Amino acid sequence: MRKDVKKILKVSIFLIVLGEILYSLLNYSNVNNTSNFSEFTTGLLLGLSVGMKLVGVVLLFICIFKMERGRR
Asked: How far is CA 56 from the centre of its chain?
């Protein structure tokens, strides 16, 4: 594997894992949304979690396509 493909693979796995950690933190801290600040932080954590997982999956697909192209 080339050096740039390895780097993309590491970053994508890191983003997916970090997104899962943020989502579990969201579920852990979602006790009672009584204030505006708690609703804001809940939405922020959810948005960051989904965004990181989405970017990680897209980077993972890019990495897979680069590895397939390199085999040819």
From this structure: 5
